[in-house]
Amino acid sequence: MSVTLDGDNSGSVPGPVRKFAHGPSPVRKFLRGPSPVRKFVRGPRPESVPTLVGTACTVVGLIDVAAGVFPRFRHSRMHTLAEVLPGALGPFAAALSLSAGVLLLLLAHGLKRRKRRAWRAAVVLLPAGALAQFAYRHSVIGTLVSLVLCLLLVRNRGEFAALPDPRSRWRALANFVLLGAGSLALGLVVVSAHPGRVVGSPSIADRLQHVLYGMLGFEGPVEYAGDTSWTVAYSLGALGLLTAVTTIYLAFRPEHPAARLTEDDEVRLRALLEKHGGRDSLGHFALRRDKGVVFSPSGKAAVCYRVVSGVMLASGDPIGDVEAWPGAIERFMDEARAHSWTPAVMGCGETGGEVWTRETGLDALELGDEAVVDVADFSLAGRAMRNVRQMVKRIERLGYETRVRRVSEIGDAELARIRRAADDWRGTDNERGFSMALGRIGDPADGDCVIATAHKADEHADDSPYGDLKAVLHFVPWGHDGMSLDLMRRDRSADPGMNELLIVAALQAAPQLSVERVSLNFAMFRSALARGEKLGAGPVLRTWRGLLIFLSRWFQIESLYKFNAKFRPRWEPRFVVYRTARDLPRISLAAMQAEGFVSLALPRPFARRFPAPRPRPCAHTTAPGREQHARAA
Fold first, then answer.
1. For the chain, what is the radius of gyration of the CA atoms?
2. Are 402 and 454 in contact (CB under 8 A)?
3. Short-list 342, 288, 277, 278, CA closest to 315
4. Which of 126, 148, 165, 206 ranks highest by number of CB atoms within 10 Å?
5. Beta-bridge partners for 454
């Protein structure tokens, strides 16, 4: 039977034969489909390249460090396999391997964060490594792998567009201390990694002295047999040179100061608070001058933030009109992407959390509760307020009196005395607070703030620099009919109960100040503490409560909850907004740094000797809202 494949006779072709003749060929299927070969040729997804290359640099850096430190590793099978990777410049070049490994480890973090400068450094280092691979070891595979990784970086250069982080000259000092300590420890390992070649039995002090001398380029007291002394000397010299070069680079590179509120920013924020400040009790704290700000395209909303350890922390709800919040949030996220910062929001309300999660796809977790007292419902009468009532009466019988006034009603001399007392009574070297702290008292621009003071005339009042002042409470405005507690300070020699006395005095004086609601302290994990102490609480909840009580030894968790509960407030939940669960530890550390519980700054004597530079706006901070405002004007 003859088969014809054209004309009307095509219908006479049997089914299987016709399907093969007119259907897609296996070659076409292979080329069109998502075959493994096509996937390999296309390479990894662009968004995964930074993490992939950063991880590769970490692995290669660790291998290079091990190859430079341990002689046996350079002759092992593992190192034979590792030689094909970029960065392994030769089994005998210990100094080059050690320094290259440390540089790759330092570079890996920047690559994972999509930093442009890290990309530039990698694009320069990888061809140099490929050249070294071919020149020293004649390794074709190692050269090709280096070039392939470099090609991968060049092909996906658009993924590495993050701008530099805010920094100052102190980074150079931090690098010298941290990298110097790491190099010292690593050098001690290098000196001790050749036990069979050491002449005599040098002590730890001799080995440490040998490391210090070697990092400075001098010969130390430890002697080795054979060529080992040259290997150790070059390795220690490479570590010392690496520490010196990176420190000099950080000291002389251009400075990128952190974003700060400008006078124009503060004026615009105050205008927004005048119209919409009653929505959030934390709104006035956005006027901290160590925060940056991004405005919505319309200029009707803003988000204030601070960058701490690569985390872009916002606090409270956005400022301004709720309808304009999405525009400000979008600008916030654009700024985070531009710098490869981790976005996070601390202490936003329920409405703010809903808008943040809806507009950004972020997740939210209940962080705690804010204690809000309605002035009309507050009274010292009743059994529930007996403890507070008795404490206030007892203190008043001891001769204490209170004054509650707005800042604009207090004279300059008394304001200066209050500021000095608040600074001296702080108890810590650094100012604590970020999300619920203004960071200043008695500023002329904050005339609507309220200060409650406790006074007692005694025989030591004339000799004290604070006069008869014994305690201070500072409140910031919350719209036109509320105020939010900023700080509580008291003289340590004063009688207990000063804070209770002043809070009661502020609540009793609130009607004369046209204040209808007062926000007190923020109680972290309040609901867990309250439910965990109730009858019938499960073992998980009781364990969680026990952990919180244990942590209260260092952080005011349980004490703040119990203090706020004395005044019978209503509890308003507050949330933390985050991207992924793996970001929570980093966000927690950044939040503790911002709040002042963890400090990485210099000790106070050095801080006084070297004053901080004048605040300047961040050179690479975008301000589209400000530009649009200027064009409209």
1. 33
2. yes
3. 288
4. 126
5. 402, 471
Residue 508: alpha-carbon gap to chain centroid: 40
Residue 178 contacts by C-beta under 8 Å, 6 or more apart in sequence? none
Q: Write out the two tokens for 613.
A: 């530079």
Exposed/middle/buried for 484, CB within 10 Å: 0-12, 13-18, 19+? Answer: buried
Contacts 24+ apart (CB under 8 A), 385-388: 385/566, 385/568, 387/566, 388/500, 388/504, 388/566, 388/567
pLDDT tens digits, one per residue of 543-588: 877 877 777 777 777 778 888 889 999 999 999 999 998 889 889 8
Side chain identity, residue 184: L
> Could you read off the pLDDT of 348-379 as tens digits, one per residue?
999 999 999 999 989 999 888 899 999 999 99
Q: What confidence tier does 606 reach under pLDDT thresholds 50, 70, 90? A: very low
Residues linked to residue 364 through DSSP beta bridges, in sequence order:
577
Q: Side chain identity at 191, as an amino acid letter?
A: V
Three-state DSSP state, 313:
strand
Mean predicted confidence (pLDDT) in 445-463: 83
Return the minimum-mean-pLDDT range out of 149-153, 418-422, 497-501: 149-153
List the one residue out of 199, 193, 196 whose CA is nearest residue 211: 193
Q: How far is CA 214 from the centre of its chain?
A: 37
| Residues 249-276 as b or e (16 or more Cβ within 10 Å = b) | ebeeeeebbbbbbbeebeebbeebbeeb
Q: What SS3 class is residue 340?
A: coil
What counts of helices (H) and strands (E) characterise the chain?
Answer: 24, 12
Helix axes 140-155 and 116-132, enclosed angle (nearest 10): 160
Q: State the Cα–Cα distance between residues 608 and 605, nearest whole angstrom.
A: 5
